[in-house]
Amino acid sequence: MKKPLPLVPLFRQFIKDTETGKRLKKNGERIQPQSIQNYYYVLQNLVQFSTECKFELQLCDASKLNKRELQSEKNYWKKFYQKFTDFLYKKGCFDNYVGNNIKTIRVFFNYLKNDKDFNTGDFQRLFYVRKEEISIFVLSPEQLKFLIHDKEFEESLIPSLKRIKDIFVFGCTTGLRFSDIFLLTNKNFEQTGDDWYLKLKSQKTKTYTSVKLPGYAVDIYKRYRSVSCKTGVFRKISLFNFNKSLKQMGEQAGYTNPIEVSREKQGKAKKILKAAAQERFCDKMSSHMMRRTAITTLLILGMPEHLVRKISGHSAASGSFNRYVHYAQAYMDKEIDKVHSKLESYFV
């Protein structure tokens, strides 16, 4: 006989065990705080879905079900998947967000099975995780050179935006994640003769990198380096304020060309239109652009892929890295087309 258990308390226990370190990664490391925050978002969505759609969230021990009850439970989870994803799409969510919610729910099912010896029936295999290819927005080499070298533009910025520009340029050169940049201390910078190197271990991938710094990046470091080796080189700023200031700086730099943004819902592309006006390039500038710009710039300027991967910490099979390769190739194709168009016409 079916004896369902409420799902929400089990999900809360799943989060608690993750926070306290009872649940770890397969390699024994603790789950990152950002992942735990995402679990809370999923829980919030589940509670809201259950309330608004009047869908009772419950689980049954599949080992105690007869054949008819097992089929009934299977149908229940099929229905849940359909209704829950429909609920998220109606809220305005896109495939990546919906897919991440489903991925977390699958992780929760595996936790019940592996950590709590609760026979879930493996119904999570019914849940399809959708993914979408989101357009990559990066600075072109010309735009990056402008931020590095244009003194007139730099002098037009207020001190707080000058600092944002410097941090952004440093990130676009080194390929560091936002979180890693603010962990840098003087110990991460090493001088060998006339050359300077940045040496660090990525907080996310745990990989070690040693990157030779160009002169302008060394100048940025010297401008902000601290007296103590225990203090961060760059004074911390919230991600929200950094992105807000970055958009303001981009607008001042003239990066206001209109762009078309599309996202996918259930595998179908949907154009995103702003109510007030069309989105501009500067509106898409964010901390993520630093790392993406660094990787694509190295590829565009001819650095071999395997060396770029070593700097960025991507594996050879990384899907995200392949997107950067495709973007760099598309950029180079456009530049080649410009040259070909001049050659094809006798009068220029």
UniProtKB/TrEMBL annotation:
Query: Which keywords annotate this record?
Result: DNA recombination, DNA-binding
Pfam families per UniProt: Phage_integrase (PF00589)
**Signal peptide boundaries:** none
- All copies of the Tyr recombinase domain together span 134-337
> InterPro entries, from UniProt?
DNA_brk_join_enz, Integrase-like_cat_sf, Integrase_catalytic, Tyrosine_recombinase_XerCD
Q: Which family does it belong to?
A: Belongs to the 'phage' integrase family.
Q: What is this protein called?
A: Tyrosine-type recombinase/integrase
Q: Which organism is it from?
A: Flavobacterium arundinis
- Taxonomic lineage of this organism? Bacteria, Pseudomonadati, Bacteroidota, Flavobacteriia, Flavobacteriales
